[in-house]
Amino acid sequence: MALGTIIAMALAAGTPSTADTTEVAYDALTNGNPQEAIAQLEEGDRHDPARLINLAAAYLATGRTADAREAYKKAAVAERYELETVDGEWIDSRVLARAELARTYSVSFEQSRMARVD
Question: CA 59 to CA 87: how far, in whole Å?
């Protein structure tokens, strides 16, 4: 993937029929505007795991690794949701946050997975 981003549609675990979508700066991130994504994501709910994961990805894209790690850590203990990644995979938000956090210590950020909002 080009940009280390998690742009997500969050579904409350176990309740897909009552899914709420949340703004997670998908357009800004996929269009290569991490600063715009940061501005959008820092204004919103700082406890939403999809937003935190995408905020972390935007921080990584701007070289703010320490901030990214903190956001991933918060997402790893936030309320659990199923998130859709850009490649169509559904994954537990805590699992995704922990995996992406680990990547910040081991691989280039371009290999991070993305999620999307439809």
Answer: 21
Phi, psi of 68 (to 5 degrees): -60, -45
For the stretch 33-59, pLDDT in tens is 999 999 999 997 889 999 999 999 999
pTM to 2 decimal places: 0.75
Is the backbone of residue 25 left (phi > 0), alpha (psi -120 to 50) or beta? left
Helix-strand-coil split of the chain, %, nearest 5: 50, 10, 40
Exposed e or buried b per residue across 86-112, where buried means at least 16 C-beta atoms within 10 angstroms of its C-beta: beeeebebbebbbebbebbeeeebeeb
State which amino acid sits at residue 52. Answer: L
Backbone angles phi, psi at 18, to 5 degrees: -115, 30
- Return the half-sphere exposure (C-beta side, CA atoms, 13 A cut-off) of residue 82: 12
Tokens of 47: 């406890």
